[in-house]
Amino acid sequence: ETGVTQSPTHLIKTRGQQVTLRCSSQSGHNTVSWYQQALGQGPQFIFQYYREEENGRGNFPPRFSGLQFPNYSSELNVNALELDDSALYLCASSSLARMNTEAFFGQGTRLTVV
Amino acid sequence: EDQVTQSPEALRLQEGESSSLNCSYTVSGLRGLFWYRQDPGKGPEFLFTLYSAGEEKEKERLKATLTKKESFLHITAPKPEDSATYLCAVQGPQGAQKLVFGQGTRLTINP
After folding, report:
1. Rounded CA separation B39/B84 (Å)
2. How many angstroms separate the CA atoms of A86 and A101, rounded?
3. Is B39 near chain A, with CB under 8 Å?
4. What is the rounded distance in angstroms from the CA atom of residue A90 to the CA atom of residue A92?
5. pLDDT tens for residues A21-57?
6. What is d(CA A59, CA A76) in angstroms, rounded to the nearest whole number?
7. What is the CB-side half-sphere exposure of residue B6 using CA atoms within 13 A?
8. What is the arithmetic mean of pLDDT over B59-85?
9. Chain A contacts of B42, Cβ < 8 Å?
10. In A, which residues are within 8 Å of B87 by CB distance?
């Protein structure tokens, strides 16, 4: 079991609402990445945070935003929720101090938009 | 653009029946190829990282190999507890440690 924890585990929101998902990274890791996984698909990269700044972004609109805190924990915020935002949201922590490093995932937050 | 294709999409085996899962990739400058196992409704669990063609890694009944175009995950004498979705991902040379995943292979081992 990894040291990456996500909250909440499940969430139901109404279309148009806003949501905040949280992630605590594994001890010793300074980088957090967020992924969206639709049912039956592989995870899709949303963005990554390193030293409290965005360090790369995938093909997601600006209503997906994030934060990283001094203790390396992170939040994913999604505004103006759409039905297609229903998915498993995964947080992964890693360390940019090493050139090649594995990313360890949390258990995910299942978001349902109705 | 980096791409990963996994085959087959789904595979059913009898307990003890060995097989291989395939991961074909296109990436400009591979930094690493990763295999993960994912149980339903849970996050991916790290299995292996492969860095260069010819590299092999083993863990219990699993063995991962890498060539310049594809990776294989060999499963020897599988047990029902090996049933899961197996995900392959690549990391390219870009600064961010972005992983590009395939769609996964859903493996079912029947007792």
Report:
1. 5
2. 30
3. no
4. 7
5. 999 998 888 899 999 999 999 999 999 998 899 988 9
6. 15
7. 28
8. 97
9. 107-108
10. 42-43
Q: Which residues contact A71 (CB under 8 A, 6 or more apart)?
A: none
Beta bridge partners of A113: A13
pLDDT, mean of residues B60-85: 97
Asked whether the beta carbons of residue A100 and residue B102 sit closer than 8 angstroms, the reply is: no
Residue A57 CB partners (closer than 8 Å, separation 6+): A46, A47, A48
In angstroms, the separation between the Cα of residue B36 and the nearest Cα of chain A is 10
Residue with tokens 């990456």: A4
**Which residues have a Cβ under 8 Å from the Cβ of A35 and sit 6 or more positions away?**
A43, A44, A45, A46, A89, A90, A91, A92, A105, B99, B101
Q: B6: how many CB neighbours lie within 10 A of its CB?
A: 24
Contact B41 A104 (CB under 8 A): no
